Input
Amino acid sequence: MIYSFDGSYQGFLTALFESFERKHFEVSLVVQDDFFAPLFEEVFDVVTDFQKAQRVQKGLHKVCSPKHKTDIFKVFLSEKPEAWKALIYIVQKQFLGKKDILDNYGDAQILLFHKTLTSVDRERHRMKAFVRFQKSEDGMFYCMIEPDFNVLPLISDFFRKRYADQKWLIYDVKRKYGVLYDQQTLSEVYLTPHQQNALTNSENIISFDETEEKYQTLWQQYFKSTNIEARKNMKLHLQHVPRRYWKYLVEKQM
Output
């Protein structure tokens, strides 16, 4: 059975509710905007219902530890349909009273859950390390990221605590949304095509603060001076800093 939903976490929780209520135990999830229904395949369109989503949240609170609830959210953020299918399978089992289900690594769905969780956690950790803010002339610090998974919800609070005295924007170019911090609250922002182009254009439509380019040059010089050519190990370097992250790293723009 295929369930199509809006791609939101509330929509996912609603899909969980519907699958349990309708006794559909083999469910594949797809995002409505990215999906074309195949011929002869039954598709159920999930309408996001916050009350149903809240009931599932309360149910998860009863059968899951706080860590496991967080892990479910992390795996959801992988945006992988096969991982979503594993989540539905696992939560249904838990609601049916199956205990210690996550310890059964012989189950392919459980194994997929743990592998996906590890991948999302790794990406979250890397994004904390690879975010490079640039200061615009209006005093706003901004940066762009293109993570493999939708980890922005997992890193925004880390940067809120770390840069509590600054206004900043982290924008996910791949998913076309960002998180803005105004020194008080975090909020999601969605830019117009013109605004996004101002962020991503290589000609820097956004003007730097007068000291920004100096700091960038100093950082590049420091990075170059500490890079001992005789000890250079590109294979090891790529393991820690994969090439796909280089696009937005100041030290790589030399």
Q: What stands out?
A: Strands lie at 2-5, 28-31, 43-45, 134-135, 141-145, 168-172, 177-181, 186-189.
